[in-house]
UniProtKB/TrEMBL annotation:
<dbReference type="InterPro" id="IPR035959">
    <property type="entry name" value="RutC-like_sf"/>
</dbReference>
<dbReference type="GO" id="GO:0017178">
    <property type="term" value="F:diphthine-ammonia ligase activity"/>
</dbReference>
<dbReference type="InterPro" id="IPR006175">
    <property type="entry name" value="YjgF/YER057c/UK114"/>
</dbReference>
<dbReference type="GO" id="GO:0017183">
    <property type="term" value="P:protein histidyl modification to diphthamide"/>
</dbReference>
<dbReference type="Pfam" id="PF01042">
    <property type="entry name" value="Ribonuc_L-PSP"/>
</dbReference>
<protein>
    <submittedName>
        <fullName>Uncharacterized protein</fullName>
    </submittedName>
</protein>
<dbReference type="InterPro" id="IPR030662">
    <property type="entry name" value="DPH6/MJ0570"/>
</dbReference>
Amino acid sequence: VQAENSEGCVDAKESVADVTVLTKAADDGLQISTKKEDLAFSISCWLGASESSGLQDDLKGVLRKIEAELSGHNLDWRNVLYVHLYISDMNEFAVANDTYVKFITQEKCPSGVPSRSTVELPLPHVGLGKAYIEVLVTKNEEKRVLHVQSISCWAPSCIGPYSQATFHKNVLYMAGQLGLYPPTMTLTKGGAVAELELALQNSEAVAKSFNCSISTSSVLLVVYCSESIPSSERGKIQDKLEAFLKQIRSSSTKEGKLSKVLDHLSLYVLVPDLPK
């Protein structure tokens, strides 16, 4: 999500200039891919299936490798804006969280822990280990982080080791949102479409805390859909997304709050499973 006030934004052509990709293999089987940019860059790390020894050990190895890579750039976890965590089995989500929090802590990130999305992917089917991580890194530590851990009525809490959203250089990076009812933190009933609607409401609540809206300011919306969703329901998910955004824009117009609308991209990804 891009902030309403675009002052200080860098032109997209400048921000992706001179991008290079470096890939190297270590003796321990870990693979690192680094994409460098002027202001930010991403680091991806994974193990090959033949070197895998279970989610906990794989994740420890991957996190250690990323930590070492950050250190090689004179950076650490406080420079990480966002983490994409991919695991091979969502039933081991608790194991992944317990391992993750040993590396990324509030003490190491005094301005706030990075925002995060966690998704199950069939990693072993493509020759990878049990864990794959991509982090977005910046050399500029200036950021605002929303990390509400108490139960509230306006948005789901983040009791885990990640924040709801991270604001940096006029761009808001939002953690993955589920169709959870904030006061009880329970998944809403009614199926995938109902879950999406509540997840969007939660996303809008987080965006509003940064004075922006997913309906007018979004650059990219990624919708992860569990493969358990019947094919007959999948088309309804796209319809619900577009109807929800249209409804918010309409309300903003009536209230005289509508700013210039960005043409966002919507990406729908079918995955084996999502966090519960």
